[in-house]
Amino acid sequence: MPDQLTDLLHADADAVRVPAPDPAAVLARGRALRRRRRAGTALVAAAAVLAVGAGGVLVGDLLRTPAPAPPVAVADTAAAEAYAANGAWAIGDEVTIGGDETVTLDDTVYYLAQTSAGAVALLPGDGDGDARRLVLVRPDGTTADLGARVEAIELGAEVDAPYVTWLVPGDGTAEVHVWDVEADREVGGGDVPAPGLTGEYSVAPDLVGDALVVDDYAGSVRWLRWRTGEVLPTGQVPEKAAGVRRLSQEASADGMGDWIVVDVATGEVVRRVERGWESFASLSPDGTTLYLARTLEAGETAAVLDVGTGVEAPLDDVSFNATWTPDGSVLGAVAEGFSVCRADGCTLWRVDLDPTDRNWLLPDVANVG
Amino acid sequence: MPARTSRAPSDHEFSDLVVAAWPSLYRTAYLLLGDHGQAEDLVQTALARTYARWGSVRDVAAAPAYARRVVVTTATTWYRRRGFRGESPTDELPERAHVDGPVEERLDLVAALATLPRRQRAVVVLRFYEDLSVRETAEVLGISEGTVKSQTSHALDKLRAALPAALASLPTPATPEDSRA
Fold it and tell me: Which residues cross the membrane (chain A) (predicted)?
């Protein structure tokens, strides 16, 4: 192969004048981006969850509070129950659902979302264009190539609904799509004003029943009735927002503001938690429990916190970033594999994870690498 | 049960990463975009996105590779969303890049690269500058391996035509990518 071309490219590139970096400016942009991202990743509908008899003990029991109703609403089968209990994850082109069912897809998974119909994988395009593809991996291990073509790098989803959402940034506008993964068709969406959206990056919209919320990147959020395309006026929230909680981070100049759980309808801060020097937080599907990994003066901690009482219970066997299974257990990755933690301990699925490769994915978390 | 991994890296470590990775990322960005201002903006954006994931980083050594991947994927996103100026290739070589001193002649190749359609340009940079395989290139760009191969072939044809003397020894484009697949 033309090593000559490689040599020439390196010689030319080496001759390019490189401006000096500005780490402080990069840090400032990164902090702003992280605030936006975290503000948009944990919207839940505590009042709208569905109950199924998935059984099992939830992480909420660690806190000696009544377990919330499992939110997933999939068919009553052993596979569905396993999916509800253990969630899904991906390594390269392999998606594991329910802990034991592994499916090999035709390309590397970019992002993984959990829906009531199963896990939805975002894959590279098929060569006809740059838009990416979606594949539904059902709890029983069967798959369906979906017709959607997605110009986004992450998906939004709820574990109790068969929809995924994504957002295409425009000039001051967020173009929102909602796709029914069971019916395999677009069922709604619309254009939402987002004056602060620059187009470089944006989080996926959060679904709340027939509405969804989009960060306008100007300090506020806008609601869209996605079935009709109606955008609600600024400050107005839909009826479905009653009881909805949102995880956010309090604004601060240094990016170190506390984690706050906010009642979307009233704006009330229902829980405030010290953020720590470095931290990761994720709100459970039913909105009652917060997963927290923090680096404090005393050291690094991982815990689940009851949003209602503020009581924390430590977790020892999950990764710094973790997510939730559909029924409310903590799913993380450790050196030996994937770990699902609930009240009666953690279950480890042994997988050879190369920490320098990091091509593994937890659902709803875009991992490094 | 497994022990916990080490703490997340600090902001100080991130600043060190910015300083260390910046020159290499900038050169890749410049080859992809052909514009200094956009290259700087791209690298800043990519590093900011890396920082946004910083809390989940457990191995700082893996962070530069992640940032490089973000540079490429963000560039391809910009191609689509910004009405990128390289969207319509031109037959005329653009002005030479700004360089220091006697190496200016070398930049004929960079100028020729800038005339390629965006996808061909990205394929050349990834395969022959970043030394990615066909499969890795396909994965990063979100296209099929067949498309990578065909785009490579077309790109080499054009580069050879633009710079016949410098690239005379390049093989004919029958299957030029095979040895790197």
Answer: 39-60
